[in-house]
Design brief:
Elements: E1 8-11, H1 15-27, E2 34-35, H2 38-48, E3 52-56, H3 64-71, E4 78-83, H4 88-96, E5 101-104, H5 109-121, E6 134-136, E7 139-142, E8 147-150, E9 153-154, H6 159-170, E10 176-177, H7 178-186, H8 196-208, E11 218-221, E12 225-228
Parallel strand pairs: 1-2, 1-3, 3-4, 4-5
Antiparallel strand pairs: 6-7, 7-8, 8-9, 10-12, 11-12
C-alpha cells in the first residue's frame, strides 16, 4: 500500500522564493501548492487541508500573525513561520498564536525541508502504556484524548504545547533539558535555537495560570531545564 502524499502549503508573497521552496518540497516527495496573500492562505487551508503550512509573516492582505491566529480556529496542522525579522519579539508573537516552529530569512531550502520532515515525524498519539489520565492538583492531562482541563475547564493548547506537557507529565520526577525536549517533541535532527522551548513553556504557563516564581505545575530546574511540580 502506497502512503498518501503529504501536503505542505507554502504561503509566501515573494513569488520566486515561493517557487524555489515549492520545488525543493516537491523533490522531497510532498505536494506543495503555493499562495501569496493572507486571505488566499486561509482559503487554501480550508480547501487542501495541508499537513504543514510554511507561513511568511510579511504578507499582503493579512499579515502572517493574523493568518496563523485564524488558522488555529479550524486546523491543528503544523505551522512553520518564515520571517525576515529576527528580533525575539517576532518569534514570541508568532509562536504565541499557534505556530510550531520558525525560520529566519535568509535560510537554506534544505534546512526548511528538514524542518518540515522533523515536524511530520512527530508522533500524533501517545503509546497505550503511557496514555492514562495524569492528575496534578487541579490539572488533568489526558494523553489518549489529547485533552487538558484545569479545575474542570478545558484548556486549549497548540499541538506543540500539548506535546511538551505530555512529555513532562509522562515522567514527572525527571528534569528535562531543552535538548531532550526538542529531541522528543520536535526531532533529534532538529537544528535551531533551543530557547524556542522556553517560549512554548512560557505560553503553557500563561494558559495554566502558572507563576514561574511559585509554580504549581511546571518547575524550572536551574541550569538544566524543566519538570513537573510533584510536591
Amino acid at each position: 500500500m502506497v502512503d498518501a502524499v503529504r501536503t505542505v502549503l507554502v504561503v509566501e508573497d515573494e513569488k520566486d522564493l515561493a517557487t524555489m521552496v515549492g520545488s525543493y518540497l516537491e523533490r522531497a516527495g510532498y505536494a506543495a501548492p503555493l499562495v501569496h496573500t493572507g486571505p488566499d492562505a486561509i482559503d487554501a487551508a480550508h480547501a487542501v487541508q495541508p499537513d504543514v503550512i510554511v507561513l511568511d509573516l510579511g504578507l499582503p492582505g493579512l499579515d502572517g500573525v493574523e493568518v496563523c491566529r485564524r488558522l488555529r480556529t479550524f486546523t491543528d496542522c503544523y505551522i512553520l513561520i518564515l520571517t525576515a525579522r529576527a528580533e525575539e519579539v517576532d518569534t514570541i508573537v508568532g509562536l504565541s498564536v499557534g505556530a510550531d516552529d520558525y525560520l529566519t530569512k535568509p535560510f537554506r531550502p534544505r534546512e526548511l525541508v528538514a524542518r518540515v520532515q522533523a515536524l511530520l515525524r512527530r508522533p500524533r498519539h501517545q503509546a497505550p502504556s503511557v496514555a492514562q489520565l495524569r492528575v496534578f492538583g487541579s490539572l488533568e492531562v489526558d494523553p489518549a484524548g489529547r485533552r487538558v482541563t484545569l479545575s474542570g475547564e478545558p484548556v486549549v493548547l497548540t499541538r506543540t504545547e500539548f506535546d511538551i506537557l505530555a512529555l513532562l507529565t509522562a515522567s514527572p520526577a525527571l528534569a528535562f533539558a531543552r535538548r531532550q525536549i526538542i529531541d522528543e517533541v520536535w526531532d533529534p535532527a532538529w537544528v535551531g535555537d533551543e530557547h524556542v522551548v522556553d517560549v512554548h513553556i512560557a505560553h503553557l504557563r500563561n494558559k495554566l495560570g502558572d507563576d514561574p516564581v511559585e509554580p504549581r505545575y511546571i518547575d524550572t530546574v536551574r541550569g538544566v531545564g524543566y519538570r513537573m511540580v510533584t510536591r
